[in-house]
Design brief:
The complex is a heterodimer of chains A (334) and B (308).
Chain A: H1 2-28, H2 33-39, H3 45-55, H4 61-73, H5 87-122, H6 127-141, H7 144-158, H8 181-187, H9 191-228, H10 231-238, H11 243-281, H12 286-295, H13 299-327, H14 329-333
Helix pairs in contact in A: 1-13, 2-3, 5-6, 5-9, 5-11, 6-9, 7-9, 7-11, 8-9, 9-11, 10-11, 11-12, 11-13, 12-13
Chain B: H1 2-20, H2 23-33, H3 35-57, H4 67-70, H5 96-132, H6 134-148, H7 152-162, H8 168-195, H9 198-205, H10 210-246, H11 259-266, H12 275-302
Helix pairs in contact in B: 2-12, 3-5, 3-12, 5-6, 5-8, 5-10, 5-12, 6-8, 7-8, 8-10, 9-10, 10-11, 10-12, 11-12
Classes of the chains: A mainly alpha (334), B mainly alpha (308).
Chain lengths: 334, 308
């Protein structure tokens, strides 16, 4: 098992290296290069050349790349053009908000999605199945941001059941430990703060989780249907195993393989969707940093966010592979 | 007994019948029988027709600010339906209905443009990988893996952000690039699966040139999943383009009638006139749903497992 993990970790390195090269090239293909982007409207050819010297952009390109790589590895992504603060500090502050939101959305999607998909599969062709399938098709077609706007209007404005925006009520003054609002409340035993944070989390998490939910339901359904047709399920039935045992040991376990891949693949959707959801709910996480960075073309910030997203994605895929190896011993061997 | 015989005969007859038809003809037949496919096709067709004739049937100029609407416009009131203006005005006193119609054309241009560009680039990469295999394949696939490792919306955002000013073209390119690796991988997988199939081996053994084998045998037999994916991609491309507009990365011209932009702009007026957000969103959902239904039923129809 350990060897498997180490091997997969080593395999991720070239991907990350090439990715860093892409981000490097991306920055250099900006109009006027990084210096032009830094100077913005004030850029003149002389100023750009002077700044190029300061930034070491007059050196050979491969030396620049290695220096860039060195800076990244030591965690130096430069300073934001908007706040002047180191990008890493900015991201560190906003990251917990996004992780909290994404995890809540994923939890919503998984906890609801797998049972629903299983139910649909076991009622194949009946009303429950058909309506679930239609629901998933519609769910995928709804733009995340519209769903957010809709939920907000309906449940926050009209019915006033949930708060319309933000992570916590302004009247609550919570102690910050990890910057995960719910976790902080639990750690410091400020129950009202935790409850309030949870309350704020509901609408954004549902909005962000709906597309992953639809995808997970569909994959679970298809995967369970596939497994139900397998010979070993028929054999298990024929030899008189208890239905519950067959369901748990044979059907669900085997059906979970494609599902776990799909859950991993949702990370990309979640990260992209978080940008839109955070915008609607004024969430103040990475999405807000990104949206603001786009508006002002804050390249150091964008570059760091892009690289971070890719690294997270690669790591999550790694986790998926490991979970694969845990579920299915055959994967470990190959 | 006789009924059993009849049933058996019917099955054999059906098998013989399907053996005489091509997979494509069979798929079309199956599509025509499926209500889901027909609904999808209907929605897509409706969208296509509307998008093409929109400028001719729009009752008003979608970019014109009408004095009769402007006169009533107040911070807490946006005029609703009235004679000549089917859905009333928008936040700037323009005809909302005409803007919605013309928005269909924008979405069509962006969706089809992005999908076509992605399809062509992806097919070149995937085709090369599938035709040559070996190190060409492994290098090209490493490249697509890396593109896939960046979440598609973030990739689109970073490409669109490269342009100092957003435009429809940058949106199309940004969305197109995110679809390239998917098409590439699909075509490559389908072609590699055929490398060792009997008909390819037979053609190679007969001394048919490699180029002919690739273009006459491998490529046509690999197109099914790619066509399905292209239909599904049209849905996501339209949603993704709308998302970029919503984030302010689309055409900066605020007068542009584009569903994502209309939706983004109307957020501030949602208490005043929720339809301004609602209708463009419903339009996006219907179009995306149409392409999804069509794509899914195409996938099912082309699946040889369902052939009976």
């Amino acid at each position: 098992m350990l060897r498997f993990i180490v091997r997969r970790l080593l395999q991720a390195i070239p991907t990350l290296l090439i990715l860093s090269l892409l981000v490097f090239v991306w920055l250099r293909s900006l109009p006027g290069g990084p210096s032009g982007a830094l100077l913005g409207d004030k850029a003149t050819p002389e100023k750009i050349e002077a700044l190029n010297k300061v930034l070491g952009l007059d050196q050979p390109i491969y030396i620049q790349y290695f220096k860039f790589l060195g800076r990244i590895l030591s965690g130096d992504f430069g300073s934001s053009l908007i706040s002047g603060e180191p990008v890493v500090a900015e991201i560190g502050r906003a990251l917990p908000a996004t992780i909290e939101l994404s995890l809540a959305a994923l939890l919503f999607a998984v906890v609801l999605g797998i049972p629903l998909g299983y139910l649909a599969a076991s009622h194949r062709g009946r009303f429950l199945d058909n309506s679930t399938v239609i629901g998933t098709l519609v769910g995928v077609a709804v733009p995340v941001f519209f769903l957010g706007i809709l939920l907000k209007q309906l449940f926050a404005q009209d019915l006033a059941l949930f708060p319309p925006s933000g992570r916590q009520d302004v009247t609550i003054d919570p102690t910050h430990v990890t910057n995960f609002a719910v976790l902080d409340g639990l750690l410091t035993q400020e129950w009202d703060a935790a409850a309030d944070a949870l309350w704020h989390l509901v609408l954004p998490a549902v909005a962000l989780g709906t597309i992953p939910l639809a995808v997970i339901v569909r994959i679970t359904r298809a995967s369970v249907l596939d497994v139900l047709n397998e010979d070993f399920v028929r054999t298990a039935n024929a030899k008189g195993l208890q239905a519950q045992l067959i369901r748990r040991r044979h059907v669900l376990r085997n059906a979970m393989l494609p599902v776990s891949t799909t859950i991993g693949l949702q990370t990309g959707l979640l990260l992209g969707g978080a940008v839109l959801t955070e915008r609607v709910f004024v969430w103040g996480g990475l999405g807000s940093l990104l949206a603001q960075g786009i508006e002002r073309r804050d390249y150091p910030r964008l570059q760091a966010l892009l690289l971070l997203a890719a690294v997270v994605y690669v790591l999550v895929n790694l986790l998926v592979d490991i979970s694969y190896a845990i579920i299915d011993p055959r994967v470990r061997a190959s | 007994m006789t009924s059993l015989l009849k049933r058996k005969r019917a099955r054999v007859d059906a098998l013989a019948e399907s053996a005489g038809t091509s997979l494509a003809a069979d798929a079309v037949k199956r599509m025509l029988r499926s209500p889901v496919a027909l609904l999808g096709a209907f929605l897509v067709l409706l969208f296509l027709v509307l998008a093409i004739v929109a400028p001719f049937i729009a009752p008003k100029d979608p970019y014109q600010r009408y004095p009769e609407l402007l006169a009533e416009l107040r911070p807490d009131f946006i005029p609703g339906a009235q004679p000549g203006f089917l859905l009333g005005g928008d936040e700037l006193g323009r005809d909302f209905f005409s803007r919605l119609l013309v928005g269909a054309q924008q979405s069509l241009v962006v969706g089809v443009g992005a999908t076509l560009i992605g399809l062509v680039l992806g097919m070149i990469i995937g085709g090369l990988a599938g035709a040559f295999g070996g190190w060409v394949d492994s290098w090209l696939m490493r490249f697509t893996d890396i593109m896939l490792s960046i979440p598609s919306l973030l990739l689109a955002i970073s490409i669109a952000a490269l342009a100092s000013r957003g435009s429809q073209t940058t949106v199309i390119i940004a969305v197109a690039v995110t679809t390239v690796p998917i098409f590439a991988r699909l075509l490559r997988g389908a072609m590699l699966a055929q490398r060792h199939s009997d008909h390819v081996l037979a053609a190679t053994a007969l001394g048919v040139r490699r180029r002919t084998v690739v273009f006459r045998h491998m490529l046509p037999n690999s197109l099914g999943p790619v066509i399905v994916q292209a239909t599904l991609t049209l849905a996501t491309a339209i949603i993704e383009a709308a998302s970029l507009s919503f984030l302010g990365l689309g055409d900066p011209d605020p007068s542009r009638a584009e569903w994502g932009l209309m939706l983004g702009n109307s957020q501030r007026y949602i208490d005043v006139k929720p339809e301004l957000a609602f209708y463009p969103a419903v339009a996006i959902i219907i179009v995306a749903l149409g392409f999804t239904l069509l794509g899914e039923s195409l996938r099912e129809a082309l699946d040889p497992k369902n052939r009976r």
